[in-house]
C-alpha cells in the first residue's frame, strides 16, 4: 500500500460514499488482490470506476486495467503533469478548456474546448493530450460522481496545418484512453463549426473509433447553440454565462494553485509491468496495429 499526501481521485474526498454497492466494491477489491501489477487505490477510486461503468463489475475491471496500463505505457501523455511546466503552459495559452457553469436539464456537466490561438506551429499534439487529460482529471475530482458529460469541440480556427501536427502514436493512445479508460459517463460529443476538411479528419480517426463512440458524435457547421440551448452558453456565443476566456482563466488558476501538487503526485498511479502475472493482449497497449479490443481478464 503506497501512502500519498493527497486524496485521489477526489482531492476533497467523496462523502458520503455510494450506498448499495458493497458487494461490487468487494468483488473489485478481491480481483485487484490477484493483480499485483496494479497500484493500490482507495475505495473512492474504485467507486469512480464502478460509477463510470454503471456498477457493472466486468466492465469496471476492464476500465481499471486499461487506465493504469495506459498511464504506464504512454509516458508522453501521463508524465510531466505539472501545469506550470513551460510545455503545459503553452497548451493552456493556445487552447481554451472550460467547464460551463450550468448543468444540462438531465444533470450532465457541459465541457467546451476551442482554440485560443490559431497558429498551428505552436501546437504539440502529445502536450495537448496531456493537458486535456490533466484538465479532465481535475473535473472528475470536482464533479465527483457525475451523472454524465456533454462535450463540445468548437473547430473554429482549425486548419489543415493543425492536422499535420497530429502524431499517430499519441492519437491512438488518446482514443484508447477516452474509449476504454477514462472513468466518466460520456453522453454526447458535439463537433461544431466543422471545417471543410472534416472528412480528412474522420478518415484519420474513424479506424480508431468504436461504434458506440460514433453513436455519440454529432457534427454541425453552426456554433454551440446547435448543441445546447443558449442559456447554457457563454456570452461569446450569445448566452448569459461568463465569457469562455474568463472561465478558462479561472479554471486554469484553480489547476495551477490548488491541483498542481495533486496532479504531479497522480503520476504514481500506474501498473508495474515487472509484477504482472498475465500479459495484456498483443497490440493493445504496444503496437496498436489493429482495432482496439478489451483485455482478457479473469
UniProtKB/TrEMBL annotation:
InterPro entries: CRAL-TRIO_dom (IPR001251), CRAL-TRIO_dom_sf (IPR036865), CRAL/TRIO_N_dom_sf (IPR036273). Transmembrane segments: none annotated. Pfam families: CRAL_TRIO. CDD domains: SEC14. SMART domains: SEC14. GO terms for molecular function: phosphatidylinositol bisphosphate binding. It comes from the Eukaryota. GO terms for cellular component: membrane. Residues 87-245 form the CRAL-TRIO domain. PANTHER family: ALPHA-TOCOPHEROL TRANSFER PROTEIN-RELATED (PTHR10174), GH10083P-RELATED (PTHR10174:SF222). This is CRAL-TRIO domain-containing protein.
Amino acid at each position: 500500500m503506497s501512502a500519498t499526501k493527497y486524496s485521489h481521485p477526489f482531492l476533497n474526498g467523496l462523502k458520503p460514499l455510494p450506498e448499495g454497492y458493497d458487494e461490487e466494491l468487494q468483488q473489485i477489491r478481491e480481483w485487484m488482490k490477484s493483480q499485483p501489477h496494479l497500484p493500490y487505490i482507495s475505495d473512492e477510486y474504485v467507486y469512480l470506476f464502478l460509477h463510470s461503468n454503471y456498477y457493472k463489475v466486468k466492465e469496471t475491471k476492464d476500465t481499471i486495467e486499461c487506465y493504469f496500463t495506459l498511464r504506464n505505457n504512454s509516458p508522453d501523455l501521463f508524465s510531466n503533469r505539472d501545469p506550470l511546466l513551460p510545455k503545459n503552459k503553452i497548451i493552456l495559452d493556445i487552447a481554451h478548456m472550460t467547464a460551463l457553469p450550468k448543468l444540462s436539464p438531465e444533470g450532465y456537466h457541459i465541457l467546451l474546448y476551442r482554440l485560443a490561438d490559431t497558429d498551428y506551429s505552436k501546437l504539440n499534439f502529445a502536450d495537448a493530450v496531456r493537458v486535456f487529460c490533466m484538465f479532465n482529471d481535475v473535473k472528475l475530482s470536482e464533479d465527483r460522481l457525475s451523472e454524465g458529460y456533454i462535450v463540445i469541440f468548437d473547430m473554429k480556427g482549425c486548419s489543415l496545418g493543425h492536422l499535420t501536427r497530429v502524431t499517430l502514436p499519441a492519437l491512438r493512445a488518446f482514443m484508447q484512453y477516452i474509449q476504454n479508460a477514462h472513468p466518466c459517463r460520456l453522453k454526447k460529443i458535439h463537433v461544431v463549426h466543422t471545417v471543410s476538411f472534416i472528412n480528412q479528419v474522420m478518415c484519420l480517426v474513424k479506424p480508431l473509433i468504436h461504434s458506440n463512440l460514433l453513436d455519440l458524435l454529432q457534427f454541425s457547421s453552426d456554433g454551440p447553440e446547435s448543441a445546447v440551448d443558449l442559456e447554457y452558453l457563454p456570452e461569446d456565443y450569445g448566452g448569459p454565462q461568463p465569457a469562455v476566456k474568463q472561465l478558462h482563466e479561472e479554471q486554469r488558476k484553480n489547476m495551477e494553485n490548488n491541483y498542481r501538487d495533486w496532479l504531479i503526485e497522480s503520476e504514481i498511479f500506474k501498473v508495474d509491468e515487472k509484477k504482472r502475472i498475465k500479459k495484456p493482449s498483443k497490440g493493445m497497449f504496444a503496437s496498436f496495429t489493429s482495432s482496439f479490443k478489451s483485455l482478457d481478464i479473469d
